[in-house]
């Protein structure tokens, strides 16, 4: 079985500061990893994904994440926060040898941007 | 924006009544999913479909059924609603499998 832990249900950063949202996973087989963003009263959007290959992946809106196998982590970063980044962010994991019905979501991190 | 429409967007109903939620897509994607979102649980998969009349259970399928008679429509039915099914329900679609586009959700309250 796989699981995802997002450290910090709420994170606040100042506009222009670094955004760091933490995600650690547990998987008995090599994982596929994902970050989604949910804006208020909307559904989720896929931000970025890691399946194989380069461990640093870039997504939309200037976000990127790095797969670190030794740390079982997939933290999401953005160098400079913008007011429009305020949203809830979900990390998700799927075993590489199963279908997408095995996608497991974390409980989410709500990001607040301080003007 | 991907063409996904969920209806209704909000519904309040009573325990024991049947409820049907509809997901309509205009993208002609193969895969469709129903999730529920609850505080402290993230999103959990209820049922999914990989083609017309091809459906399967997810993690929390008890008390729910689905049907997909056309590519564009995926219906979620609560045969006899219970208070534990109060939640926000999201439909998602994808062509290659991983859910990429989600609808705006249906907020369901069961009293």
Descriptive notes:
The complex is a heterodimer of chains A (115) and B (111). Chain A is built from no helices and eleven strands. Chain A is mainly β. In chain A, strand 7 (64-68) and strand 8 (73-78) form a beta hairpin. The mean pLDDT of chain A is 93. By secondary structure, chain B is mostly beta strands. Chain B contains no helices and eleven strands. In chain B, strand 4 and strand 5 form a beta hairpin. Chain B starts with a strand and ends with a strand. The interface between A and B is medium-sized, with 21 and 24 residues.
List the helices and strands and how they pair.
The complex is a heterodimer of chains A (115) and B (111).
Chain A: E1 3-7, E2 10-14, E3 19-26, E4 31-38, E5 44-50, E6 56-58, E7 64-68, E8 73-78, E9 87-95, E10 104-105, E11 109-114
Parallel strand pairs in A: 2-11
Antiparallel strand pairs in A: 1-3, 3-8, 4-5, 4-9, 6-7, 7-8, 9-10, 9-11
Chain B: E1 4-7, E2 10-13, E3 19-25, E4 31-38, E5 42-51, E6 54-57, E7 64-70, E8 73-78, E9 87-94, E10 101-102, E11 106-110
Parallel strand pairs in B: 2-11
Antiparallel strand pairs in B: 1-3, 3-8, 4-5, 4-9, 5-6, 7-8, 9-10, 9-11
Give a summary of the structure in a few sentences.
The complex is a heterodimer of chains A (about 120) and B (about 110). By secondary structure, chain A is mainly beta.
- Terminal CA distance of chain A: 41 Å
Overall radius of gyration of chain A:
14 Å
Count of individual helical segments of chain A: 0
What series of H and E elements makes up the topology of chain B? EEEEEEEEEEE
Instruction: Please provide the count of β strands of chain B.
Output: 11
Brief descriptors of the model:
heterodimer, A: mainly beta, five-stranded antiparallel sheet, 56% strand, B: mainly beta, seven-stranded mixed sheet, four-stranded antiparallel sheet
């Amino acid at each position: 079985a796989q699981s995802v832990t997002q450290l910090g249900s709420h994170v606040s950063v100042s506009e222009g500061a670094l955004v760091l949202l933490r995600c650690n996973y547990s998987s008995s087989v090599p994982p596929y990893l994902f970050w989604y963003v949910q804006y208020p009263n909307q559904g989720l959007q896929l931000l970025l994904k890691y399946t194989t290959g380069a461990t640093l992946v870039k997504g939309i809106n200037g976000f990127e994440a790095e797969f670190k196998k030794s740390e079982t982590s997939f933290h999401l970063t953005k160098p400079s926060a913008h007011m429009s980044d305020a949203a809830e962010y979900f990390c998700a994991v799927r075993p590489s040898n199963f279908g997408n019905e095995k996608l497991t979501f974390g409980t989410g991190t709500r990001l607040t941007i301080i003007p | 924006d991907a063409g996904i429409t969920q209806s209704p967007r909000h519904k309040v109903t009573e325990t024991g009544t049947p409820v049907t939620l509809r997901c309509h897509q205009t993208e002609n994607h193969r895969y469709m999913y129903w999730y529920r979102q609850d505080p402290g649980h993230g999103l959990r998969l209820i049922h999914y479909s990989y083609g017309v009349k091809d459906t399967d259970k997810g993690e929390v399928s008890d008390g729910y059924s689905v049907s997909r008679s056309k590519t564009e429509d995926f219906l979620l039915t609560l045969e006899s609603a219970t208070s534990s099914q109060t939640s926000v329900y999201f439909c998602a679609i994808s062509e290659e499998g991983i859910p990429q586009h989600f609808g705006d959700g249906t907020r369901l309250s069961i009293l």
